[in-house]
């Protein structure tokens, strides 16, 4: 095993990368297991179910699974309807990538529609089914935009894509922010928004907030974008 791993790492570090600009969000079969990569200019969205540890520790497994499924299904449907590509599920959260025109706007609208689904669909349905239960489903969405370097990692039969770049890392960290606000975006995303997503009837949609995990100021909001 030591020899096999040593040879792999040495070969990896000695090989040149083959890269190409992507026109679509890649899947595993689009990229080889060698030093092959696709470069994208993308917005990344992470939607995270807040306090899932409290949920699984304090409620029965079937109830926790209902909450997971209701949230992740709703988020995934909204993401896809907004032109995003779902790239991973990681326990209680989903990752999505948006590319092309108005990618930041489409990602933010998706995030705000997820907030609407949680507040206006999932929570009321849960209360109607279990009126005496005190669990309240909460969530956070984090969004950033940057170039991404997409490679394939793992071994044959068990591999996945890795999304290397600021947007993937920072969006994931924002999704772990306090759930008293539901949507967190970086300046790179905020600066691409139109007036319909920054100001409504003279009221500011976003509040600046310093993220300790990122060590810079981002924008956060409690607003939602309703379905039409």
From TrEMBL:
InterPro entries referenced in this protein's UniProt entry, alphabetically: Nucleotide_cyclase
* Protein's name according to its UniProt entry: Adenylate/guanylate cyclase domain-containing protein
- This protein's species is Caballeronia novacaledonica
């Amino acid at each position: 095993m030591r020899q096999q791993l040593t040879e792999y790492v040495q070969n990896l570090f000695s090989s040149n990368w083959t890269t190409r600009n992507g026109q679509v969000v890649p899947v595993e079969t689009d990229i080889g297991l060698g030093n092959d990569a696709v470069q994208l200019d993308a917005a990344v969205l992470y939607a995270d179910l807040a306090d899932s540890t409290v949920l699984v520790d304090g409620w029965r497994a079937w109830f926790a699974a209902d909450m997971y499924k209701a949230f992740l299904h709703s988020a995934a449907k909204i993401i896809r309807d907004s032109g995003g590509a779902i790239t991973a599920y990681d326990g209680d959260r989903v990752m999505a990538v948006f590319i092309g025109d108005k990618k930041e706007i489409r990602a933010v609208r998706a995030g705000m529609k997820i907030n609407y689904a949680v507040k206006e669909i999932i929570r009321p349905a849960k209360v109607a089914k279990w009126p005496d239960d005190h669990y309240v489903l909460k969530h956070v969405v984090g969004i950033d935009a940057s170039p991404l370097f997409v490679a394939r990692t793992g071994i044959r039969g068990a591999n996945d894509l890795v999304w290397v770049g600021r947007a993937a890392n920072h969006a994931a960290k924002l999704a772990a922010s306090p759930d008293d606000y539901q949507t967190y975006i970086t300046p790179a995303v905020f600066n691409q928004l139109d007036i319909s997503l920054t100001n409504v009837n003279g009221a500011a949609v976003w509040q600046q907030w310093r993220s300790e995990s990122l060590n810079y100021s981002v924008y956060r909001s409690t607003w939602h974008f309703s379905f039409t």
